[in-house]
Specification:
Length: 79
Amino acid sequence: MSKFKIIHEVEKCIGCGACAAINSEHWYMEGEKSHLHNSTKEGEEEHLELEGEKNLEVNKEAAYVCPADCIHVKEKEDE
């Protein structure tokens, strides 16, 4: 099963809402920024670890459409 981590650089977010429009299961808008549901904060970043091919693909798409390039999806090795 695909395991991956999403890193969202909140300070770089321009609040366009593309990620939330594509994937409201993991992304939401609050104020002028998007945020990850159930994420942990590390400084100005939000981190979320997930698994599953469907979750991986939809979050890669959210990262691809982000004009601020502030969403990063990093696949993890099987443990």
